[in-house]
């Protein structure tokens, strides 16, 4: 029975709490909100899982003494108990404001068969029996918390169980004799089962579920050098209709994690309940990602003549620059050029109602490739552009796409005199639009995972863009094995 209790509670909390060291009390980068509709679905799926698991459990033996007039006292034992059928007809999972969740199972039925044996002095009897347990009701309050590592904690603060009726029918040698005092046996069965149910729930929470929660990872891998921290920033927060789970949701470099120089914004979530789950995803998530990839040099690039289209009117050679940078071709005749670009600082993705945008600033340095294989700096360009962003969601991940406008180029420094940058601007527009951004978009298309348990998929998503955060409403589906 302990295994099944763990199965139900693990599924319930697994659906609710992400598989996730956050600083307690810090503003979260992501809030996962489970509404009353979501809790209703979780309770329904948990009941299905428990009902399938009940056939696998081992029930304890029951022993006791009996007394019959003119016969005297004896001893009986019920063993080899197997569940024949069960109907778990009602379940509810509701927020427990200020604490966590209240779980209840009601009006359920279990039929058990097994063997019995009885002993009176030297007389030993045995046979089979059928046990029907009707009107099973269980209610348990779960207090949800978090520990310094950012993992969730759970304790059962109270548990109550009630069984309306127990019916035992015994057969076998002199089974009719035991049927004479079946009321005593049924009463004892009911009392033992009622106490055992809550005992097993408490034991399951303490010995199975809580240790299981301690094994949950608090980070997820994005790629070979980036990860995301999904640790809790505080204990899950229950109100009258929702359960909010606050997550750090900070991207980091897997090789050398460093402090983020900015804080997550405070998010004011809309009061909506049409979907099972809502995710409030702040700009902190995306901007810590931008910081990681910028520091890793992922946004740097290099352009040489061999990547310039054969049909281009301008080549990355000093000869090609002769018309508009004459000093360059005279000082470095018939030599190749290399342009090295870098983003000046990590691009900041700005969220405003209905809009996502960023304005990356780049610097491009031009070098002459000397015959000695050395490189010599000749000029520096400043490059600015505005970029609109689109975010989409599949069944488990957030993906993105950048749509840049044309770049604007200015000459910032030159060792070969002033010159017109229009031709270079055309070349850079071609390269950035056809090489750099497609590469970035390929990375964004891989996306990053939402904090979902295994076998949970999203459907019917609705996306809103608010100041400083995205608000994704979605229904969930548990994919049974």
Report on the structure:
By secondary structure, this protein is α+β, with helices and mostly antiparallel strands. Helix content is 24%, strand content 44%. It has seven helices and 25 strands. A six-stranded antiparallel β-sheet has the order 10-11-1-13-25-24. Strands 2, 3, 4, 5, 6 and 7 form a six-stranded antiparallel β-sheet that branches. Strand 24 (456-466) and strand 25 (469-478) form a beta hairpin. The radius of gyration is 34 Å and the shape is rod-shaped. 33% of the residues are buried.
* Average pLDDT, all residues: 84
pLDDT < 50 stretches = 1-7, 19-25
**Percent range for β-strand residues:** 35-45%
SS class: alpha+beta
How far apart lie the N and C ends? 22 Å
Largest sheet: spatial strand order: 10-11-1-13-25-24
Number of strands: 25
- Overall, the morphology is rod-shaped
Cα Rg: 34 Å
- Report the major sheet: 6 strands, antiparallel
Percent of residues in helices comes to 10-25%
- List the total number of helices: 7
């Amino acid at each position: 029975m302990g295994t099944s209790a763990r199965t139900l509670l693990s599924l319930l909390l697994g659906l609710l709490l992400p598989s996730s060291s956050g600083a307690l009390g810090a503003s979260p980068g992501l809030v996962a909100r489970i509404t009353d509709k979501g809790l209703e679905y979780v309770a329904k799926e948990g009941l299905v899982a428990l009902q399938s698991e009940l056939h696998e459990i081992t029930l304890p033996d029951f022993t006791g003494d009996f007394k019959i007039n003119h016969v005297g006292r004896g001893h009986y034992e019920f063993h080899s108990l197997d569940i024949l059928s069960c109907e778990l007809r009602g379940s509810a999972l509701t927020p427990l404001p200020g604490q966590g969740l209240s779980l209840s199972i009601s009006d359920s039925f279990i039929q058990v068969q097994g063997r019995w044996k009885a002993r009176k002095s030297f007389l030993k009897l045995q046979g089979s029996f059928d046990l029907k347990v009707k009107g099973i009701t269980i209610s348990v309050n779960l207090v949800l918390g978090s520990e310094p590592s950012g993992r969730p904690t759970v304790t059962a603060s109270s548990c109550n169980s009630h069984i309306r009726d127990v019916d035992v029918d015994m057969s076998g040698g002199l089974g009719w004799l035991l049927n004479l005092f079946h009321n005593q046996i049924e009463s004892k069965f009911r009392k033992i089962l009622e106490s055992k149910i809550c005992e097993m729930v408490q034991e399951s929470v303490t010995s199975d579920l809580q240790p299981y929660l301690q094994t949950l990872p608090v980070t997820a891998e994005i790629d070979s050098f980036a990860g995301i921290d999904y640790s809790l920033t505080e204990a899950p927060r229950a109100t009258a209709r929702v359960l909010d789970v606050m997550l750090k949701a900070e991207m980091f470099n897997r090789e050398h994690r460093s402090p983020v120089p900015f804080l997550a914004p405070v998010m004011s979530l809309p009061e909506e309940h049409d979907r099972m789950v809502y995710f409030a995803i702040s700009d902190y998530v995306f901007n810590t990602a931008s910081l990681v990839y910028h520091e890793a040099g992922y946004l740097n690039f290099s352009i040489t003549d061999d990547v310039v289209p054969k049909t281009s009117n301008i080549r990355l050679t000093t000869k090609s620059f002769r018309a508009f940078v004459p000093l360059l071709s005279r000082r470095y005749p018939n030599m190749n050029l290399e342009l090295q670009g870098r983003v000046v600082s990590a691009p900041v993705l700005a969220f405003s109602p209905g809009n996502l945008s960023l304005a990356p600033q780049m610097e491009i340095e031009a070098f002459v490739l000397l015959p000695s294989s050395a490189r010599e700096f000749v000029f520096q360009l400043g490059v600015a552009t505005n970029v609109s962003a689109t975010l989409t969601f599949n069944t488990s991940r957030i993906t993105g796409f950048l749509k840049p406008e044309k770049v604007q180029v200015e000459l910032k420094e030159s060792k070969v005199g002033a010159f017109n940058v229009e031709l270079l601007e055309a070349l850079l527009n071609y390269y950035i639009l056809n090489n750099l951004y497609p590469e970035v978009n390929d990375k964004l298309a891989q996306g990053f995972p939402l904090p979902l348990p295994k076998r949970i998929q999203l459907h019917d998503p609705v996306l809103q863009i608010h100041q400083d955060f995205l608000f994704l409403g979605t229904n969930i589906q548990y994919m049974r094995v």
